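Good morning,

Both structures are done.
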Amino acid sequence: MMIIIKDGKTMTDKNTFYNMLKTNAESRPDAVAVVYDTMKVTYEKLFDDVTKKALHFQKFEGKRIAIFGPASYRWIVNMFGTIVAGKELALVDFFLPHDSRVDLLKKTEVNYTLTSTNQYILSDENSIIISSAEKDNVDGLIYDENTQEGDIIMFTATANECDKPVVLSVDNILNAVMAINSRVECTSDDIVLAQIPLHNEFGFIYSLIWPLYNGAMVCIGRGLRHVDADTYYYNPTILIGTPSMIDYQRAISGFNKELNTIIIGGASCPFRLFENLCDSDLKVYNIYGMTETSGCVGVNELYDGSYTLFDNNAVSIADDGEIIVSGPCVMKGYYNDGEFTENVLKDGVYHTGDYGRINNVGRLVLLQRNPDIILLPTGEKISRVRTNEQITAINGVAEGFITFYNNRLTAVIVPIDKSASEDIFKRRIDKYNEKKGYRWEIQKIVLRKEPLPRNSDGTVDEEAVCELIGD
């Protein structure tokens, strides 16, 4: 078996979370792995807690567990424990409305749930605690290091679905981590602040798995109430965030003096923000990737906005200009949807729906993001087609179109009754927002009596729509 020497520690070529955690526990047992408020946990204890949790979960026959709750040490232990036990893990947004969360649990056919409201005691698919699950004594049990670790299911937006479950393997995740290491430095001396949600690929990989792989200290943000203060509370050297979060931190002078690196992802970083951050002598990186590629395609560190590819051999441009990606970071597929998987994953090559070119120095230049998906600066993704259908289905709407204009998610509505007032549709949109939750709340509506402007192929002309909004 090949041995890789990294930062003085030995890593085997078997890509597993168990090996990652064990390696750090053996090489740096007393080093702090995770900090949550005043709680500090060493790599040795993290490995011990995860292994015990995995042994506990192996007592139960079901193969798929969903976890939802705010980020915490217990969330991390249960997440790793599920995967190390050989169970499949679905990462679900804790702040989703109840009905939306139930829909995702049904969609992924989970057998069990782990939730903060149940103190992360194993519960059934309806979040009712399993009677025998509170007894988690595993004395005398020995973990089988040959256990096949479970896959991770995350949710993203596609052309036809707002919450499409994507299946990633541990091998996908750890190959992404090694690719990140080839372009961005993180050492065992670093302190990484994880303030963004861990249920999506950017937060999960860049603010948790990547630093733990490198033996760094991960500090878990204490929630929205402490966003203003967490940088000065934990004094990170690396800050991970979405464009909107980093811009907010910049505006409130929230960068501590120890901070030297900012990694922005989940959405493209506006040039104004990138320029402002670079002027402050920070190392700034904007990540280009999506859930289907384990968040790993390229990284921008230059003013021109082009991206250094994590793997030059994995990215190419199709004849029509579409960016296509192959290699070990590409997903296994969409959960329980072979047909749609085959539409975008052809012979192991993922068709992103984004368009670009490779410039004369081998860097990726993005020309157009997937028009079927709205990418918000918060990192949230919206299926434009499905959302347009939902808006049009609202009572009294003849045509509906969603767009992100002037930093606000805006619904342009053509009413059936041209005399209908805007207040009527504001109330109906408010009800729509209640079902969707905070993720993609429609913040503005524009009523229009004339039909929406369209392109020659019949699709709505978004550029013309935005001009109408501006007028």
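Second structure follows.
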Amino acid sequence: MPHCLRLACLLLAGTFLGAAAQGLPPEVDAVLAEGGLPRDAVVVLVAPAEGGAPRVAHRIDTAVNPASVAKLATTFAALDLLGPTYTWTTQVYFDGSVRGSVLQGNLVIKGQGDPKLVMERLWLLLKRVRALGVHRITGDIVLDRSAFTVPARDPAAFDGEPLRPYNAGPDALLVNFKTVAVTFTPEGRQARVRVEPALAGVRWPAHVPLAAGECGDWITPLRADFTQPARVRLPGSFPAACGERTWNIAWPEPDAYAARAIAGMWEEVGGHLGGQVRDGVAPAGAQPVLELASPPLAEVVRDVNKFSNNVMAQQLFLTLSLVHRGTGTFEGSREVLAGWWRERLGGEPPFTENGSGLSRMESITARQLGQLLQAAWVSPLMPDLAASLPALGLDGTLRRQRQNIGLAHLKTGSLNEVAGVAGYVHGPQGRRWVLVAIANHRRASAIRPAVQALVEWASRQP
């Protein structure tokens, strides 16, 4: 990023430092009181997007947990440090010679952090291997995950919900977010079970019995048993009143997901494997026989922010140290992000544990978020970041909102006892406002109607 942008960021920070705090608008205060959310449990900022004194500054120097609003720092830093056209590549090596249609040796797939290696793109990768003339592999398919070094993690550790897709962990060779989609379709007296993708060696029941009664919580009555992940049991029933439903699951055996998915896809594209799928490393000094590029970073950032995808955000975060340090680590990426913050925005950076906001250790102030959003607004990267934020009432995590439709682009964040937003509000005559509103409290969700009142108030400001 050019020197002029850094100067602009520092000038914005100076404007903030000299600004006197102003109180909450009365209508926002009233909504907070009605919801039982104390004023000292929220931080609020409304300021001109192009810089200048804030219109509202309530507890803006109080550090709070931002939940997924933390993704703003990760995504803007990535756009600035890597560039909006940055792509990840997944490389394929032949560790052996090809004779006829047979690879006499191993096929090596090296991941480099692609956040969006979904099944359609894995199919394309393996079809390209087939197009190189390989029909059978006498050895193994070797998965090289060495680009990232991340600690072992328990997917249940954060909130006791290991099957929730938001708890999937990062991986240098992340395949399909380590998730499966299980669809239940009522047919006669049973519900047909369809699972995508097909994981090699995993068996699912073909049907489950239908039950009477209302739909409600339809997952618990299935009594899903993943004690033996290779043989899933569904001894319960599915409510007929639900119609067709899909259950998205983070695979309970996450470290084995890529191996099972790749083995299954290799068979699907018509390949034969003599050995097994296992972890390993690419042969030293070898050149890849093909590379599959990811979508560009700007497109990935849209997915991260629109849908608050945690594992994609962590992939992006780890890529910062992969590119700048040679290996992707959480500690290395924290250092890269902190250095970028000091250089571009000035002052001490916020703390982020993993770049996604899925953490109880995240810490940032409304002032810091305001500085980041103002800096982004005067940056050439503004269109990429602003367009990645959910449009109020239209898409992403804000698609179900029914007030002030289209008046704001806001990143949302939500955890137990944490809720908030940060982004841009559209005012009259093309005016744009930075808005930050976050609550840390047992009644944090009560900030949502206050956010609507604040958006409406800000959108009227000249």
